[in-house]
Amino acid sequence: QICLSLVKLLFYLAHSPLGSIVLLDFQPRQFVMVDGNLKVTDMDDASTEELSCKEDNDCTLNFPTKSFPLKCSMAGTCKGINEKKNLFNAYRYFFTYLLPHSAPPALRPLLSDILNATGDLRYGINETLRAFEKVLHLYKSGLYLQKRPLLLKDYISLKGFRTVEGEDYKCWPSYSHLGCVLSVHSDEEAAAICNSQSQCQSFIITQQRTWAGRPLASFQSSWTDLIPDTNAVIYIKRSASSGERL
């Protein structure tokens, strides 16, 4: 969410009515999230001026660990230097820390491609935005889910019940520090996640939604402490319920 919002912001800056705008003091502390969107808090160090040049050798974009040769345009400015400077700063301050860690496994290669392409400045802001929007579409639609055996048949569902809230086993990247709460596309994906965790014996699809519209599922190591909840459905492993009366 943070990286996509940042890319949308940089897309606007690259195509602003004033021309391509560069953020000269590009640091995480210069941004804040407002209603799920990233905003710049200080525009004092923004500039529309692009580096002037006479030849391509005048247009090297330098960073502490990398340098990029750019082209000198017919107008005598280094072509796209503001856009590329913003994009590489986004890569080194945001993408490298946020992109690799919490996506579903099937989407990680696509995010790795974005990371590598922006780190080498092979992508401009237009290509980067399209790549992010493709990943978002796959994420929201569930099209990233690989065909696999249906696992929900291994679970018994009880409508109108949930377990008592409390501390349980932890997982990464959980939305709750008290237990294992993950976003899922469907109850079938939740069943696959539960099957992959040795501690998991049951799960509940909650009414909470993430920024992408995906429901949150709470995965639990037991199911015995049930309480009525008309909005809830608990899914219990058939193997866990063997010998128990539901």
TrEMBL record:
Pfam families: PIP49_C
Kinase in keyword set: yes
Alphabetical keyword list: Kinase, Signal, Transferase
Signal peptide (UniProt feature, chain positions): 1-19
KW Metal-binding (keyword) present: no
Molecular function as annotated in GO: non-membrane spanning protein tyrosine kinase activity
All residue ranges annotated as the FAM69 protein-kinase domain in the record: 2-116
GO terms under biological process: skeletal system development
InterPro entries, per database record: FAM69_kinase_dom (IPR022049), PKDCC (IPR042983)
One GO cellular component, as annotated: extracellular region
Origin superkingdom: Eukaryota
PANTHER family xref list: PROTEIN KINASE DOMAIN-CONTAINING PROTEIN
Name recorded for this polypeptide: PKDCC kinase
Native species: Lanius ludovicianus (Loggerhead shrike)
Phylogenetic placement of the source organism: Eukaryota, Metazoa, Chordata, Craniata, Vertebrata
